[in-house]
Amino acid sequence: MELLRNCAYDLRYGMRTLLRARGLAIVAAVTLTIGIGANTAIFSIIDTVLLRPLPFRDARQLVRLNETEAAPGTYPFAGPDFLDWKTQNKTFQDMTLFSWPGDMNLGGRGTPDHVIGLPAEANFFSLLGVAPLLGRTFAPGEDEPGKDRVAVLSYRLWQGHFAGDRGVIGRTIELDARTFTIIGVMPSTFKFPSQAQLWVPLDMDSKTLGHRGSHWANAIGRLKPAVALSAAQADLKVIAARLEKTYPNSNDKVGATVTSLHDDLVGESRDSLLLMLSAVGLVLLIACANVANLLLSRAVARQKEMAVRSALGAGRGRLLRQLLTESLLLSLSGGAMGLFVARAVLTAFSRTQSLGLAPFTVRLDGEILAFTFVLAIATAVLFGIIPALRTATPDLHEELKGGAGSSVSPSKRRRFTSRALVVAEMGLSMLLLVCAGLLLKDFVRLRNLNIGVRPEGVFTAGVQLPDVHYKTNQQKFDFARALLDKASQIPGVDVAALSDRLPLGGGSNYFAKLRGSTGAMSNQLVETHSVTPDYFRAMGVRLLEGRSFTAADMQKVLSLDNHWTEITAGGAEPKPEQTDAIVYPVVINQAMARFFWPGRNPMGQMFSSGTDRGPWKEVVGVVNDVRQIGVIYESKARPEAYEAFDGGSGLYLVLHSSLPGAALRLPVQKTLAQIDATLPLFSVRTMDEIIAGDLGGQQFLSALVASFAALAALLAAVGIYGVLSYAVTQRTREIGIRMSLGATRSRVMREVLLEGMRLAVLGFVAGTAGALAAARVMASLLHEVQPNDPWIFAATAGLLATVAIVACYLPARRAAGLDPMTALRHE
Question: Among 172, 297, 574, 696, which residue's beta carbon has the most beta carbons within 10 A?
């Protein structure tokens, strides 16, 4: 009880003390608010993404499954291979197959809408162990033809399109002109895969899963209890080797990989998250150094108070407890207000989802509140212990006799501690500014990088054709031609084109086999892309050799497709003379020309998509390289073959115009409605917006670290200013004596400036060493900038030097402006 009464007394006394020093308390609390709030926000992200298991039942048993091929990397599944893995393995409880999130037209009532749907095997939800918010998920057998017209909604689609109507279960909707019944709604925390807005059954009939060698699907599995990843990997490798022997044509060099689903979802975001945590940690350290300096400065004014209390019987421990209680009050108030800062940061994070962490739901829950409380206590000890130790050891003789020395100058130990804290602040600020500078310069270079197209004035929009209404290639081709003709007539449109995909969006690929080649098939994948003749002009892609496509090429390709369908109908094996007669015109990029025909003219060369016979593709032109996979993840262009557009279910309209993108959206919508009013537009963006979206994560990380670095520099400047201002105040009498004896104002000013700059230089040296080490660690986050970029280091040093000079100048000017007589009467 006595301890509780003493603690209550310490709290009341501490609050009164801080209220008397309101200015110091407000500055310290605001400083701590920023530091603790930023750390709370970033730690909540780290905790959700890296430390906690996924929000699925027994999440540690879940793994991502992939196949491998001759080319480096992992690949999606071939349907028949998956069925063999599922039936022949000995280490898995179950496996489930699902497709890629795809564009769908949502109809049934009102204006047609665009949604992202995910076809999945019936056991998809049960394997993950997630229960619906409303209704039910897929039942066994609902992935069979005739039973698969059911749909499960995501929470956001339910809230957005259906206004959260709880009576939605049992209602029918149209997806790509097919009728589906809504059977369930998933909870808001379920976001797997992140883009999916609804789930429909995947047709698991072996005839529709495709052939071996066609890698198109995703798979996850649930391990049996106590089975290690290595054991599962070995199990699947045995199956892959067995399939390679059984099907040498399609499964040559096809292997297996098993990865923790958690690691697969986190991916390359781990380094970015750890960098953000390091940045906010440095900001908190700088904030603690600043508050510690404030308390050290105030310690001198409280020496007499501590001496009186000590003389009245208060022991050193009692004084320490009182002083640490005051620090704790400051830190807890900063932590409480920091929760609002954390919420603001998390709101911005959730809106951008720039780091690709949409499957994770980040929130401020009880565990994060506990972390904030513990962090506030640790922070209080960190910034409060040194000032408390200095203050709780007063010189009773000197303080109680009230001599001038008791208040004229602080002790050498206190001066050393205060200056050491400033040096640490400058060093940490230098480290953080260098990291921010590297990220910002890297982002600027990436943003200005030539990806192979002219982004200015390029407008794009997607359209998805339902197979129910557009059953044949001819019907899809006719729609595409009508859309192209009408879009080219929109006022302000210079060029109109169609494509099956857009730059930076990824796509499909195959292994190319050169005609007449007797060697083994190359392990180089070729990206494939289908475009109309004016695509290159619309995108600003340069034709370097040969020619582009013509309208006759498109018609020819359509005829060849129809012919190929006829000769392969019913699974018939085409004859060599039939396949050799089918030749498609293609335009390739420079990377493909260099790889397959180095030093030779590629015009007229022929290749196939991985077989020793046709259909063949004949090179008719060469264009410049275009980054198709992404600005960051494609360090160099990949071989690519453009084929003449022959109609397809998914297509993108590409317009080049002098008009802004916003002015084209309505005319394009009206044009589409004239052809088919049931089709919505989706992904309406300019090419500039596509590039910016691809670099969203890099931009978010750069902006966040730069903000923390700027804050660190500001806190460091405040630290220098505070130390020098306090030093000038303590040396007022000394300065007065020196000036009365002939010291000039310029000399006094120079000495104060030199004192501050010495601290800054020491900080520069320490910070540069730390920044060199940190830059090497963060090299994986840099793409177009070297970690030891001398310009960044020089610019950072210049910026901090400017900040330091400004912070030193004000106290120096005040010292030089002192009146000697006033200074001598200071005591």
Answer: 297
Instruction: Report how far residue 259's alpha carbon sits from residue 270's, in angstroms, rounded to the nearest whole number.
Output: 15
Which of 327-331, 460-464, 728-732 is predicted with the least confidence, judged by mean pLDDT? 728-732
pLDDT at 406: 44
What DSSP letter does each residue of 452-500 carry, written as one string? Answer: SS--TTEEEEEEE--TTT--SHHHHHHHHHHHHHHHTTSTTEEEEEEES
Element (H, E) at 107: strand 102-107
Buried (b) or exposed (e) across 255-266, using 16+ Cβ within 10 A?
bbbbbbbbeebb
Q: How many other β-carbons are positioned within 10 Å of the β-carbon of residue 301? A: 11
Residue 647 Rama label (left phi>0; alpha psi -120 to 50; beta): left
3-class DSSP string for 508-553:
EEEECEECCCCCCCCCCEEEEEEECCCHHHHHCCCEEEECCCCHHH
Cα 764 from Cα 797, distance rounded (Å): 7
Beta-carbon contacts of residue 593 (< 8 Å; ≥ 6 apart): 602, 622
The dihedral built from the CA positions of residue 550, 555, 558 and 563, taken in this order, carries a sign that is: negative
Residue ranges of the alpha helices (H) in 129-256? 155-160, 229-246, 248-251
- 237-285: pLDDT as tens digits: 999 999 999 998 888 888 999 999 999 888 778 888 888 888 888 888 8
- Cβ pair 50, 361 in contact under 8 A: no
Tell the residue number behind the tokens 């699902």, with chain if given.
98
* Amino acid identity, position 23: G
Measured over the CA atoms of residue 817, residue 822, residue 824 and residue 827, the dihedral's sign is negative
For 583, the enclosing helix (H) or strand (E) is strand 583-589
**pLDDT tens digit string along 656-671?**
999 998 899 999 999 9
The two tokens of residue 351 are: 């809106």
User: Beta strands 198-201 and 150-153: pairing type?
Assistant: antiparallel
Residue 787 confidence (pLDDT) above 60: yes
Give the Cα separation of 431 and 425 in Å (integer): 10
Q: Which of 164-168, 445-449, 541-545, 717-721 has the lowest mean pLDDT?
A: 717-721
Q: What does the pLDDT read at residue 730?
A: 64
Torsion of CA 489, 491, 495, 497, to 10 degrees: -50
CA atoms within 13 Å, Cβ hemisphere of 83: 11
Q: Which of 801, 802, 806, 799 is nearest to 724 (CA)?
A: 806
Angle at 247 between CA 243 and CA 251, to 5 degrees: 70
Name all contacts of 344-352 with Cβ < 8 Å and 24+ positions apart. Answer: 345/37, 345/38, 345/41, 345/42, 346/41, 346/44, 346/45, 349/41, 349/45, 349/700, 352/696, 352/700
pTM of the full structure: 0.84
* Contacts for 479 with CB less than 8 Å, ≥ 6 apart: 465, 470, 647, 675, 676
Query: How buried is residue 471: exposed, middle or buried, by Cβ count under 10 Å (0-12/13-18/19+)?
Result: exposed
Q: Which residues contact 390 (CB under 8 A, 6 or more apart)?
A: 296, 299, 411, 413, 414, 417
